[in-house]
Amino acid sequence: MPVHKGWLDGFSLMNRLVTNRDYLEFMADGGYRNPLLWLSNGWSKVKEQGWTAPFYWEGGEEDGWRAWTLAGVRDVDPDEPVCHVSFYEADAYARWKDARLPTEREWEHAARVSGFQGGNYLDSGALHPRPAGTDGSGLVQMGGDVWEWTSNHYEPYPGYRPFEGPLMEYNGKFMDNVRVLRGGSCATPANHIRASYRNFWAPDTRFQFTGIRLAKDA
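User: That's the sequence. What structure does it adopt?
Assistant: Structure tokens below.
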């Protein structure tokens, strides 16, 4: 709040989320070993924490990748959305694909125009991201499955004023060095999410159900 005006240049969004298959290509091409793909702080995290794959993954190229899920350890499904990646990993992957992350303004506009299609929320009981549908029409997975990183820092809208009382604790005080995510996840109740909902996490956060959708200038 409040509603405000904004300007958008032409842009396009990937019609689905980036999959594990997509991300494995990035890994195989040395994505975690190429500092030119990473923001400086992101590359520092790669080196300090030894990132070589999304969080909760184990194994490798020779033995195959497996992932810890809420239902136990299982083989990585190449068709599922890649999950548990940080903003830095999402940004590096986008750069590797000669693309970028969407702004939150672009994402919200696209969600409103497309009808905010989705469905794999907490209510589905899956508690895990699912592959995209096969109809290939329009923007899919805009709601549910994984929270989608945007390029924006979590900052106040023009004219913003903090709420009174407990809500202030959840809002204005966190507008400090965190990034915006959109769309909800498989752990988000359907009645909790909307096209305008702003989530926020530190850019190195990986434990959440966080994933990637690419954007390009039109």
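The mean pLDDT is 94.
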